[in-house]
Amino acid sequence: MFVKPTWNLHRCVYFAGFLTVCAFFFYTYVIGRQTDFKAVSDLGSLLYVHAALWTGDKVRISAVKDVGEMDNLLCIFLYVAKNYTIVKAYVKDMQRYESEITVAYINCPLTSITDVNEVPLYVDLVIENALSPGHKIRLSVENRHMDPHLIFKNAAKGSKGCERELNEKRVVQFTVCIPPMFEYGNAAQLVEKLEMVRLLGAGRVVLYDTSIESNVRSVLELYTQEWAAGTGTLEVVVLSWKLPRIPMHYKGQIAAMDDCLYRYGWLSHYMVFDDLDEIMIPLRHDNWSQLIADREKARPGSPAFMFRCSVMNKDHSSPPKGFHAAALLYQSSVLSFTQRDTYIYDFSNKGKLIVNPRKMQSLEVHNIYEANGTTDVIPVEQGILYHYRWPLRPCDPEIRDTRVATKFGLRLLQRLRLIWSKLEGISKGDEILRLGESRATCKNR
């Protein structure tokens, strides 16, 4: 971190009839690296802030704060010519878990009274009616080049935005947002995830790095370097996600989802939010595009599409015919595990979402908070979220479900061979696949 030179406000500023910031106070600000959480002081219940993202009509900031309302925060926009404007901040708690600390978002809107017709360089956060600003926080405004109408402009040109472009305005059909990786070393799982979403239609995958092992770093370097060199067909973005030392649900997953939604939503027709051990599988269609197109015909205007979850149990394996050796060699969940719970969770429990970012304001892990419209729950005969994990219901009945391996197995295997041929000597991780069809976790048997 470094200290930004001071900024002199040279006159008194009134907001909503109150003296807010007065002349000749010199601010001292701390500016953090682009994707770090930054601690704040003397800002009421606000504890940490993350990136400030321009959305076309406002700046949106992910934050961590004490639970409760906060209605006395102001945003100061700073511009190239050292002009500034002040607006009221809108703060809303997002996290619904039992905790005294919550993830929240801060919206700093540009209002009709704003007379500066440009995107701000920085946004400062201050408490309304503060007599002395003191030591406050300043954030660089990111995504200043974003165009909220880019998707529609591409559509008007007859372009789907899938062309291979090495620039900051590349539109893809699907961007996949992965939760923060913490002490993560399962390279085999990561490669399989990236290759499966590629087959399903992803053009971009965004991952958040809290702490990863060297083998995973090697995998990510391969994908990012191939993309940068123009030889890759899947854009893989890795963002630093260094967390504050306070209790945060699942490594700040909701904040990461919000960051991904607003950082890449304008470059995505749709966005996919699931985990590394989950895959949203269309069962009657070849890919996500075909499925979503049909669902939009059935339920026009839906902002989100929910896949109900069923667990593929990893306490015993039963690879389909012809995949036994490959399943073991590449530590492939898709090729190894075909025993699924007959139980499919209700949409309100463990489901995951594909969303239209232009109709979405905020969401959490298993549902939407704010959106224009009602979520479409995909019928289980059309699509299921396959969750490859240790059993949650170890003695419940199972069904042999080979649909994923049958539909994608050969193409996936071709990709796994290619990728791992470029990662010679790199560990696939410590996970050991359990061979044999007998269950290991049901103590009643």
UniProtKB/TrEMBL annotation:
The chain crosses the membrane at residues 12-32. Its main location: membrane. Its EC number is 2.4.1.-. It is a single-pass membrane protein. The keyword Zinc does not apply. GO terms for cellular component: cytoplasm; membrane. It is found in: Membrane. It holds the Pfam family Glyco_transf_92. It is an enzyme of class 2 (transferase). Keywords: Glycosyltransferase, Membrane, Transferase, Transmembrane, Transmembrane helix. GO terms for molecular function: glycosyltransferase activity. The keyword Transmembrane helix applies. Belongs to the glycosyltransferase 92 family. This is Glycosyltransferase family 92 protein. It comes from Elysia crispata.
